[in-house]
Design brief:
Blueprint: E1 6-8, H1 12-15, E2 24-29, E3 37-40, E4 46-48, E5 52-54, E6 59-61, H2 63-85, H3 92-108, H4 110-115, H5 118-125, H6 134-143, E7 158-163, E8 178-180, H7 185-197, E9 206-210, E10 215-220, H8 233-244, E11 248-251, H9 255-263
Antiparallel strand pairs: 1-4, 2-3, 2-11, 5-6, 7-10, 8-9, 9-10
């Protein structure tokens, strides 16, 4: 049986919405000496055998399982994008699909594997048969759909479609859920860990989710005050996105984006950076 070496923690179909017609992405990488570099979709947001793990008897992988999910989501996602471009509202079923996709991207992200210690995940999900391994606990968590129900409160949230200003495009990252909440990363990390344990991460935060390079979704609690305005959402998105990006951001290669986003490189994942 052939094994896929490059396993993506951001689906390729999703990345293509931020790439050019030749599937090139521009990357601003906090760990690179370059201001930015170009990479193909197939080489972005992936790890070598990322979802492979040692089972009880032999090597196992979540790659095929996630691939099946993506093959179902991708055409529905395309319909949602097409509707958003011409201001047609999502149906209730489409809202549920998008929220499920957001939940999946949270749980499968490399950010979770790196930021949330396996000891905490083990305490939450108690996989007694697993060794002390970040990768193994993370794989088990994805396989069992762990804490997806923790995000069920999002089904009561509203979704607002935000379109980019003229000649401006947005970015995504391997952790494309950007919280709109005033705090620093260390405080937020503690809140996320506590939220996972209480099965309610991000309960008090609204979320930005980049849908395409031109469209962003704002997922918010309609019962609470919402100060996001049409004329300033882009600057707020950039501030939140740079704070939560997993040390890399991906966007369509164009001169304006290269200039603006490479200038923000020093702020990627800095612990003293505050959201507004």
């Amino acid at each position: 049986m052939n094994r896929t070496k490059k396993q993506h923690y951001l689906p390729q179909f999703y990345l293509r919405y931020f790439a050019d017609e030749t599937e090139n992405l521009c990357v601003v990488d906090a760990d690179s000496e370059k201001d930015y570099y170009i990479v193909k979709v197939r080489d972005a947001a992936q790890g070598r055998y990322y979802y492979d793990f040692a089972g009880d008897e032999e090597k196992q992988s979540l790659e095929n399982f996630l691939g099946l999910l993506e093959s179902y989501i991708a055409p529905e996602y395309e319909k949602i994008v097409a509707q958003a471009e011409i201001d047609i509202e999502m149906t209730d079923e489409q809202k549920i699909l998008i929220l499920n996709f957001v939940k999946l991207q949270f749980i499968r992200s490399d950010w979770i594997r790196k930021k949330i210690p396996h000891k905490i995940l083990s305490e939450i999900f108690k996989p007694d048969h697993l060794a002390n391994s970040d990768k193994l606990v993370h794989a088990y968590m994805i396989k069992e759909g762990m804490f997806l129900e923790a995000f069920d409160y999002l089904y009561n949230f509203s979704i607002r479609v935000l379109k980019c200003p003229k000649n401006v495009e947005i970015f995504t990252s391997s952790f494309p859920i950007f919280l709109h909440k005033a705090s620093d990363l260390n405080v937020l990390l503690n809140e996320i860990q506590s939220g996972l344990q209480n099965k309610s991460p991000f309960l008090d935060a609204n979320l930005f989710f980049p849908l395409t390079s031109n469209i962003c979704l704002y997922i918010y609690n309609p019962m609470k005050e919402n100060n996001l305005k049409d004329d300033n959402w882009y600057s707020v998105f950039v501030t939140c996105g740079i704070s939560f990006a997993d040390r890399k951001i991906y966007f369509k290669p164009q001169d304006f984006s290269k200039q603006v986003y490479s200038a923000l490189k020093p702020l990627l994942n800095t612990n003293d950076f505050h959201l507004s």
